[in-house]
C-alpha cells in the first residue's frame, strides 16, 4: 500500500493537497496539519509556516490557509501569537508527550500499555457552544455505576443486542419522557441511537427518497443541513420569526416535503419557542400532507424562567412526530448516546433499517445510563444543572454588560445553553469571531446560520462552562480581543 | 399518541397485521408475537394459536404464519411440541420472570434498579452460525481491564471522540494487521466502526450512487445483499467456484460495477479460498475499471491446516481495497466493534461521512479492547481459539460421520467456524433444517444462499459452541431430528 499521507520526508511535502477530490482545500490542509500535530511531526510550541508562504507554496488563496488555521485554532491545536505567527498549542505537550512521531510506512511495533490520549483532552474553551458543564458532572457516581457493570461480562453483554437497543434503557427513557417531556410512549417505539447525527442519518435512510424536499429552519443548525444534504435531501429553508418556524411560508414553498426538522423548545440558534398556534398548524400540515415532523429536542430540559414546556410530541395525537432526544447535553457528549421515539406506523420500517444497516451499539454504556436514570441520579443532575446554568447565564450576562456597556445588546433566551450578543449594524460577525478565536476563545458568529432569513451581526456565546467567578474575566477577555 | 401495538385487550387483536406497509406479513407476525412474549402477554409455556387458525384469523396463507413461527423458534422464543403445537419457550421463565406485562399506553412508573435482561440471554443453540465460542472467552481478564477503565471518567471520555474513532485502538489494530494479516497501514487510514453491517452501510454512503452495480458472491452472505439493496445498490451476483469468485464472470456481467464485496480467506458460505490468480485478476479489474474491492475478512484468523493466509489487502499495491475487520468473531459480537482500513484516496471522503452521518461510538469499549490487545490477551486468545476450534471441528466431524455414516457427506473447510453437511440429492435442505430447528437446534440450509449458482442440498453447521464432549450427543440429536 501507498501511504502518501504519512511521507513526511521533505519539508511540508505531507501538506500536498489533492486537486482530484471534492474535499475543500482548507479541510485538506486542516486534516494534514492536524495529523502532523498528533503524530508529533509538528511539536507543541513549534511555529507553523505563515499563511502567506504556505498559500504560495500550495498555489492556493491566502484565505484558504487562514480558514484551515482557524479551524485548528477553534479546536485547540494551534494558537495565534499575533506578529509572531501561529504555533502548535504548547498545552498539547502534556497530552502528546510520550507519542512518538510515526515513521512513514511502518506501523508501530507494539503500542505501549497505556498511551496518553490525544488532543480531545483539551478542556472546553470559553463560550464554546453545544457542551454541557464539563466540570459539574457527577463523575464519581458515574464511575461507581460503570465499575459495577464492568465487573461482570454477562452472556447478554457478549451477544448481539436487540436491534432497537437495550430494553431496560428504553423503559427508563419512556418513564422519563412521561414525567419530564409530557408524553407517553411504549418502550417498543423507542430506538437507542449513537447520537443526533446518526439518528438523522437513520431517519433519512428509512423515510427519504433521494431528491425529496425537507424543511429546515432558517436560521438553523448547520449540521442538520449538512447531514440531510449528504443523505440526498433537497433542503427547503423555512424562515424562523419570534413565534418559531413560519409554517405558512413552508407550505407555500413546499407543501409536500417529506418531513420537517424543527427545534420547538428553544430554536437553534435563535432560542425562540415554537408557539402553540404554530405547533398545531405544523401538525395539521403533516397530517394533511402525509409528511413527518422530526422534533429535535436537544436541550428542552433547560429553561430558566418557567417550567420546561412539554414537547411538541405531547400534542401529536395523529402520530406524525419522530421525537429525537440526546444524552449529549444533559449528561455528556462522549457517551455518544441518543434515542428516537417513533410513530407506531414507522416501527416496522425502522426495525428493518436498524437490523440491516445499524446493527451497532454495545450495551455497556446504555446499561450504565440505565442505572444512572433508575437510581435517580439523572433527574437530580438535570435539576442541578438547571440551577447552575441559570446562575452562570446571569453572571455572564451581567459581566458582558459591564464589559461592553451598550456597545453590544445581550439577548437572554428563555432556555438553552447560550445567549446572543448583538453587535452594531456596521460589524461583520464572522470577522469579529475570528479575532476572538485567534485569542483562544470559541465564539460563533450568527450570520452564517442563515440561508435567506438574514440575522446578525451577532455572536453566540455559551455560558455552560464559565463558572460564575470567571465570568468577568472572560467577558473582559472577549472585549479586549474584539475591541468593540 | 396512539399505541396500537400494545393494546392487548381482545384475544390476539395485537396480532393485527398492517396491509399498508411493505413489511412482509410474516415479519409483522413475528414482531408482534415477540413483543407479546417479552412483554409477558404470552407467558413461558403458554401455547400459541395453531398456525392454521391464526392464518385463517388473519386471512393470510398458512405458510406465512409458519415462517413467523420458524423465525421465533430459531431465536429461542418458542419451541415446537409436535402434535401439541407451539409453545412459548419454558426456558424464558428465568429471564422474563420479574418482567411485568406492560399496561397499554402507560409507561412504567419507575423501573426497578436492576432488571433481568431479556431473551438475548439465551445461550447459543447447537450448530448456530456466526458465533465464537461463548464459553471460552477470558471473561475475568476482560472484566479486570473494563473495571480499570470504568473507574475513571476522563475529560477525553466525556468529549466528542475523533470521527475516525479512538486513536490508540487504531494504532493497536495497525500493529496487529501487520503481524497477523500481512499488510502495513497507517492508523490514520483506519476507521473504528460499529461492526460489519454498519461498515457496509457507511461504505455505501461514501462511494455508492443509487442504482450503481455492486458485485456480490453467489452463493453469498445474505445480510451483505440485504444491506446493499437497502442502500440503493443494484446487486450483480457473481458465481463462486472452487477457486473463489469467478472474476471473468463478473466482468462479463458488469464491467464497471462500483465495487465488489468478497470474502477471500474463507468464502461465506462455501469456505473456499480465493486463489492467487483470481486475487490478482480481481485487483486488475478494480484498477482498470476505477472500481473498489471490499474485503470482508470476518474470520481470516481461523485456519486449521496451515498458517492463516495473508489478506487480499496485502497484494493491494494500487490501493483499491477497503479492508473490513470485525471483533465479533475473534472476541464477541456484543462488543459491536469493527474497523475499516481505507485506501488513502478515500480518507477525506470518509472523514466527511463520519463527521456528518456517523458521529457515534463512545470510547469506553474501544479503550478496553485497546488494553486487551496491547496487553497481549488478544493474540493469546486468537491462538487458543484456533486450537480449540480445530479440536471441536474434528470432534463434530467424527461424530457426524458416526451418526449419519455415508447418508450425509461432511465437508471440512480449511478454515472458518462451520462445516457443511451435504445431503443426498433428493432432499430439500430448507425443510430438513426446519425439522431440526423445531427441536431446538439451529442449523442453516445452504440452498437459500444462492441466487443463480445453485448449491445444496446441504446444512451449514457451526462447531464453535459444541464442546468436544458434547459432539456425539448433538450429532445424534440432529440425526434423530431430521431422520436421515
Specify the structural class of chain A.
alpha/beta
Order of helices and strands of chain A: HHHEEHHHHEHEHEEHEHEEEHHHEEHEEH
Sequence stretches where pLDDT stays below 50 over 5 or more residues of chain A: 1-11, 97-121
Rg of chain A (CA only): 24 Å
Instruction: Give the proportion of residues in helices of chain A.
Output: 25-40%
Strand content of chain A: 5-15%
The count of DSSP E runs of length 2 or more, i.e. the number of strands of chain A, is: 14
The rough form of chain A would be described as globular
- Per DSSP, the total helix count of chain A is 16
For this structure, the quaternary state is homodimer
The main pleated sheet of chain A reads as: 8 strands, mixed
Largest interface: A-B, 120 and 120 residues
How would you describe the overall organization of this protein?
- The structure is a homodimer of 484-residue chains.
- With 484 residues, chain A is of the alpha/beta class.
- The first copy, chain A, is built from 16 helices and 14 strands.
- In chain A, the strands form three sheets. In chain A, strands 3-10-9-8-7-4-5-6 form an eight-stranded mixed sheet. Chain A has a four-stranded antiparallel sheet with strand order 11-12-14-13, covered by helices on one side. A two-stranded antiparallel ribbon of chain A has the order 1-2.
- At the A-B interface, helix 1, helix 5, helix 6, helix 7 and helix 8 of A face helix 1, helix 5, helix 6, helix 7 and helix 8 of B.
Amino acid at each position: 500500500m501507498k501511504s502518501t499521507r504519512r511521507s513526511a520526508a521533505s519539508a511540508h511535502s505531507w501538506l500536498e493537497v489533492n486537486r482530484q477530490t471534492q474535499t475543500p482545500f482548507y479541510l485538506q490542509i486542516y486534516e494534514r496539519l492536524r495529523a502532523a500535530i498528533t503524530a508529533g511531526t509538528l511539536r507543541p510550541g513549534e511555529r507553523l509556516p505563515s499563511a502567506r508562504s504556505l498559500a504560495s507554496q500550495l498555489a492556493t488563496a491566502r484565505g484558504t490557509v487562514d480558514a484551515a488555521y482557524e479551524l485548528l485554532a477553534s479546536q485547540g491545536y494551534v494558537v495565534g501569537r499575533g506578529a509572531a505567527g501561529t504555533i502548535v498549542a504548547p498545552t498539547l505537550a502534556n497530552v502528546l508527550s510520550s507519542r512518538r512521531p510515526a515513521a512513514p510506512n511502518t506501523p508501530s511495533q507494539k503500542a505501549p500499555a497505556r498511551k496518553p490520549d490525544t488532543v480531545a483532552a483539551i478542556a472546553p474553551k470559553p463560550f464554546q457552544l453545544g457542551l454541557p458543564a464539563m466540570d459539574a458532572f457527577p463523575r464519581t457516581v458515574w464511575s461507581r455505576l460503570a465499575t459495577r457493570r464492568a465487573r461482570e461480562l454477562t452472556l447478554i453483554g457478549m451477544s448481539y443486542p436487540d436491534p432497537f437497543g437495550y430494553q431496560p434503557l428504553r423503559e427508563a427513557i419512556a418513564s422519563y419522557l412521561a414525567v419530564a417531556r409530557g408524553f407517553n410512549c411504549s418502550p417498543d417505539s423507542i430506538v437507542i441511537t449513537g447520537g443526533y447525527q446518526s439518528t438523522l442519518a437513520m431517519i433519512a435512510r428509512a423515510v427519504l427518497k433521494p431528491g425529496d424536499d425537507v424543511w429546515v429552519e432558517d436560521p438553523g443548525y448547520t449540521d442538520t443541513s449538512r447531514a440531510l444534504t449528504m443523505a440526498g435531501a433537497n433542503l427547503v429553508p423555512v424562515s424562523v420569526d419570534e413565534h418559531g418556524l413560519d409554517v405558512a411560508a413552508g407550505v407555500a414553498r413546499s407543501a409536500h416535503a417529506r418531513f420537517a426538522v424543527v427545534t420547538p423548545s428553544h430554536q437553534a440558534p435563535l432560542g425562540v419557542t415554537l408557539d402553540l398556534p404554530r405547533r398545531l398548524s405544523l401538525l395539521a400540515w403533516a397530517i394533511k400532507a402525509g409528511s413527518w415532523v422530526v422534533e429535535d429536542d436537544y436541550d428542552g430540559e433547560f429553561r430558566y424562567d418557567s417550567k420546561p414546556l412539554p414537547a411538541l410530541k405531547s400534542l401529536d395525537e395523529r402520530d406524525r412526530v419522530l421525537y429525537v432526544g440526546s444524552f449529549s447535553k444533559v449528561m455528556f457528549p462522549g457517551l455518544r448516546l441518543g434515542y428516537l421515539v417513533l410513530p407506531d406506523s414507522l416501527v416496522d420500517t425502522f426495525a428493518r433499517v436498524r437490523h440491516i444497516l445499524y446493527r451497532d451499539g454495545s450495551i455497556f454504556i446504555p446499561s450504565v445510563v440505565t442505572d444512572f436514570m433508575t437510581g435517580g441520579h439523572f433527574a437530580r443532575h438535570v435539576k442541578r444543572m438547571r440551577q447552575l446554568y441559570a446562575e452562570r447565564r446571569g453572571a455572564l450576562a451581567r459581566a458582558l454588560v459591564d464589559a461592553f456597556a451598550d456597545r453590544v445588546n445581550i439577548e437572554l433566551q428563555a432556555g438553552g445553553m447560550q445567549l446572543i450578543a448583538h453587535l452594531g449594524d456596521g460589524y461583520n460577525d464572522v470577522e469579529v469571531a475570528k479575532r476572538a478565536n485567534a485569542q483562544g476563545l470559541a465564539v460563533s458568529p450568527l450570520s452564517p446560520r442563515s440561508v435567506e432569513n438574514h440575522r446578525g451581526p451577532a455572536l453566540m456565546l455559551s455560558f455552560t462552562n464559565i463558572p460564575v467567578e470567571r465570568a468577568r474575566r472572560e467577558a473582559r477577555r472577549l472585549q479586549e480581543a474584539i475591541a468593540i
